[in-house]
Amino acid sequence: MVEKAVAFAAKCHEGTCRKGTHIPYIVHPLETAVIVSLMTADQELICAALLHDVIEDAGVTKSQLEEEFGSRVAHLVMEETEDKTKSWKERKSATLKHLEHASEEIKILVLADKLSNLRSTARDYLLIGDEIWKRFNEKDKAQHAWYYLNIADLLIELENFGVYQEYKTLCEQVFGKSHK
């Protein structure tokens, strides 16, 4: 099932790159899946990690995912999918609110997704500094700090995972130690 999800995601993201880079977009879902696999052997959750952006970015429907990968994978992907008709702040606020009562499996999926994004941001931040914020729809570093640091607070139950500790360290490197 994981191999099928890799092929499906690769086809959906074919020809696209990460914002402001020449890195093929598929690298992100692959890395997200690897991070999830460090926390759990749950194959459906790993598939959801591979597919987490196909509804948002590739026009795939929930029913297509259900047909190809089953209802649980489709449900997990839907839990991680943002409503792109809303503003950046509205989407991120909704994610934070959702995480207040989300299941551990959703929190694992979110941590993997955000860690993958933060690794990319931290790497490029070392190279180009605050110029990095120009590549995003939201250009204000303080807004990104608000979002990523609140994610860390809401995922505290995952603190025993090394990837959570990596997330916290990268937040500090990019945004500084305190946000309160």
Automatic annotation (TrEMBL):
Organismal lineage: Bacteria, Bacillati, Bacillota, Clostridia, Lachnospirales
Residues of the HD domain: 25-118
GO molecular function: guanosine-3',5'-bis(diphosphate) 3'-diphosphatase activity
InterPro entries: HD/PDEase_dom (IPR003607), HD_domain (IPR006674), MESH1 (IPR052194)
UniProt-listed CDD domains: HDc
Gene3D superfamilies: Hypothetical protein af1432
Protein name per the record: HD domain-containing protein
